[in-house]
Amino acid sequence: MQERKQGKIMNVASTAAFQPGPLMAVYYATKAYVLSFSGAINNELKDHGITVTALCPGPTLSGFWNAAVANDSKLVKGKKMPTSAEVATFGYRAMMKGRSVAIYGWMNRIMVLSVRFAPRNMVISIVRKMSEKDK
Protein backbone atom coordinates (compact mmCIF):
# COMPACT_ATOMS: atom_id res chain seq x y z
CA MET A 1 0.00 0.00 0.00
CA GLN A 2 2.80 2.39 0.84
CA GLU A 3 4.55 1.66 -2.45
CA ARG A 4 1.32 2.31 -4.37
CA LYS A 5 0.63 5.40 -2.22
CA GLN A 6 -2.95 4.27 -1.67
CA GLY A 7 -4.91 1.84 0.40
CA LYS A 8 -7.78 1.41 2.81
CA ILE A 9 -7.96 -0.59 6.02
CA MET A 10 -11.04 -1.29 8.11
CA ASN A 11 -10.91 -2.46 11.70
CA VAL A 12 -14.05 -3.49 13.53
CA ALA A 13 -14.42 -1.77 16.88
CA SER A 14 -17.83 -1.15 18.48
CA THR A 15 -19.90 1.46 20.24
CA ALA A 16 -18.61 -0.43 23.29
CA ALA A 17 -15.26 1.26 22.60
CA PHE A 18 -16.50 4.56 23.99
CA GLN A 19 -17.16 3.56 27.62
CA PRO A 20 -16.23 0.97 30.24
CA GLY A 21 -18.44 -2.12 30.24
CA PRO A 22 -19.09 -3.98 33.48
CA LEU A 23 -20.01 -7.65 32.95
CA MET A 24 -18.20 -7.61 29.58
CA ALA A 25 -15.09 -5.66 30.62
CA VAL A 26 -12.58 -7.44 28.38
CA TYR A 27 -14.81 -7.02 25.30
CA TYR A 28 -15.30 -3.30 25.93
CA ALA A 29 -11.60 -2.75 26.64
CA THR A 30 -10.58 -4.66 23.51
CA LYS A 31 -12.87 -2.54 21.36
CA ALA A 32 -11.46 0.62 22.96
CA TYR A 33 -8.00 -0.61 21.96
CA VAL A 34 -9.13 -1.21 18.36
CA LEU A 35 -10.60 2.31 18.17
CA SER A 36 -7.47 3.93 19.62
CA PHE A 37 -5.09 1.84 17.52
CA SER A 38 -7.05 2.58 14.34
CA GLY A 39 -6.97 6.32 14.99
CA ALA A 40 -3.24 6.26 15.64
CA ILE A 41 -2.29 4.27 12.53
CA ASN A 42 -4.71 6.32 10.43
CA ASN A 43 -2.68 9.37 11.44
CA GLU A 44 0.64 7.60 10.81
CA LEU A 45 -0.36 6.40 7.34
CA LYS A 46 -2.24 9.45 6.01
CA ASP A 47 0.86 10.88 4.32
CA HIS A 48 1.21 7.57 2.45
CA GLY A 49 -2.29 7.79 0.94
CA ILE A 50 -3.66 5.10 3.27
CA THR A 51 -6.75 5.54 5.40
CA VAL A 52 -7.84 3.45 8.37
CA THR A 53 -11.50 3.26 9.34
CA ALA A 54 -12.76 2.01 12.72
CA LEU A 55 -16.24 0.60 12.19
CA CYS A 56 -18.28 0.99 15.38
CA PRO A 57 -21.59 -0.82 15.16
CA GLY A 58 -23.87 -1.20 18.12
CA PRO A 59 -25.82 -4.40 18.72
CA THR A 60 -26.05 -6.28 15.43
CA LEU A 61 -28.05 -9.31 14.41
CA SER A 62 -25.40 -12.04 14.36
CA GLY A 63 -24.26 -15.09 16.27
CA PHE A 64 -22.36 -12.89 18.76
CA TRP A 65 -25.14 -12.69 21.33
CA ASN A 66 -25.49 -16.47 21.49
CA ALA A 67 -21.73 -16.90 21.81
CA ALA A 68 -21.57 -14.24 24.55
CA VAL A 69 -24.55 -15.85 26.32
CA ALA A 70 -26.14 -12.39 26.31
CA ASN A 71 -29.42 -12.86 24.42
CA ASP A 72 -31.33 -11.99 27.59
CA SER A 73 -29.46 -8.75 28.25
CA LYS A 74 -31.36 -5.47 28.08
CA LEU A 75 -28.99 -4.42 25.31
CA VAL A 76 -30.63 -6.76 22.83
CA LYS A 77 -33.72 -8.47 24.20
CA GLY A 78 -36.74 -7.35 22.18
CA LYS A 79 -34.70 -4.83 20.18
CA LYS A 80 -34.70 -4.49 16.40
CA MET A 81 -31.08 -4.82 15.33
CA PRO A 82 -29.50 -4.21 11.93
CA THR A 83 -28.22 -7.21 10.03
CA SER A 84 -24.53 -7.90 9.61
CA ALA A 85 -24.94 -7.13 5.89
CA GLU A 86 -26.42 -3.70 6.62
CA VAL A 87 -23.58 -2.85 8.99
CA ALA A 88 -20.95 -4.17 6.57
CA THR A 89 -22.37 -2.09 3.70
CA PHE A 90 -22.34 1.02 5.90
CA GLY A 91 -18.76 0.30 6.97
CA TYR A 92 -17.59 -0.29 3.41
CA ARG A 93 -19.05 3.01 2.24
CA ALA A 94 -17.48 4.89 5.15
CA MET A 95 -14.11 3.25 4.45
CA MET A 96 -14.31 4.18 0.77
CA LYS A 97 -14.94 7.82 1.80
CA GLY A 98 -11.85 7.69 4.02
CA ARG A 99 -13.73 8.23 7.28
CA SER A 100 -11.65 7.44 10.35
CA VAL A 101 -14.60 6.45 12.58
CA ALA A 102 -17.91 5.05 11.32
CA ILE A 103 -20.68 4.69 13.90
CA TYR A 104 -23.69 2.81 12.53
CA GLY A 105 -27.12 4.28 13.33
CA TRP A 106 -28.24 7.64 14.64
CA MET A 107 -29.15 6.28 18.10
CA ASN A 108 -25.65 4.85 18.43
CA ARG A 109 -24.14 8.21 17.42
CA ILE A 110 -26.25 9.99 20.05
CA MET A 111 -25.21 7.46 22.70
CA VAL A 112 -21.53 7.84 21.86
CA LEU A 113 -21.75 11.64 22.01
CA SER A 114 -23.75 11.65 25.25
CA VAL A 115 -21.08 9.60 27.04
CA ARG A 116 -18.71 12.55 26.68
CA PHE A 117 -20.95 14.79 28.78
CA ALA A 118 -22.13 12.41 31.50
CA PRO A 119 -20.21 11.68 34.71
CA ARG A 120 -18.10 8.55 34.24
CA ASN A 121 -19.55 6.71 37.25
CA MET A 122 -23.05 7.31 35.93
CA VAL A 123 -22.09 5.96 32.50
CA ILE A 124 -20.59 2.83 34.07
CA SER A 125 -23.75 2.26 36.13
CA ILE A 126 -26.00 2.66 33.08
CA VAL A 127 -23.87 0.30 30.98
CA ARG A 128 -24.01 -2.28 33.75
CA LYS A 129 -27.81 -2.04 33.99
CA MET A 130 -28.09 -2.43 30.21
CA SER A 131 -25.79 -5.45 30.23
CA GLU A 132 -27.68 -7.26 32.98
CA LYS A 133 -30.10 -9.98 32.00
CA ASP A 134 -33.83 -9.51 32.46
CA LYS A 135 -35.06 -11.40 35.45
How do the strands and helices of this protein lay out in sequence?
Layout lengths: L6 E6 L12 H21 L4 E7 L7 H4 L16 H13 L4 E3 L2 H10 L4 H12 L4
Parallel strand pairs: 1-2, 2-3
Can you put this structure into words, describing what you see?
It contains five helices and three strands. It has 135 residues and is an alpha/beta fold. It has a single domain, classed as Rossmann fold (3-Layer(aba) Sandwich). The chain has a three-stranded parallel beta sheet with strand order 1-2-3, with helices on both faces. Helix 1 links the parallel strand 1 and strand 2. The radius of gyration is 16 Å and the shape is globular. The mean pLDDT is 87.
Give start-end ranges of low-pLDDT stretches: none
Name the CATH architecture: 3-Layer(aba) Sandwich
Which percent range fits the helix content?
40-55%
Count structural domains: 1
Ends distance: 51 Å
Nearest-angstrom radius of gyration?
16 Å
CATH class group: Alpha Beta
- The order of strands across the largest sheet is 1-2-3
What's the quaternary structure here? single chain
Question: How many H/I helices?
Answer: 5
Instruction: Please state the average pLDDT score.
Output: 87
Features:
single chain; 135 residues; alpha/beta; 5 helices; 3 strands
In short:
This protein is an alpha/beta fold. The chain contains 5 helices and 3 strands; from the N terminus they run E-H-E-H-H-E-H-H. The chain has a 3-stranded parallel sheet with strand order 1-2-3, with helices on both faces.
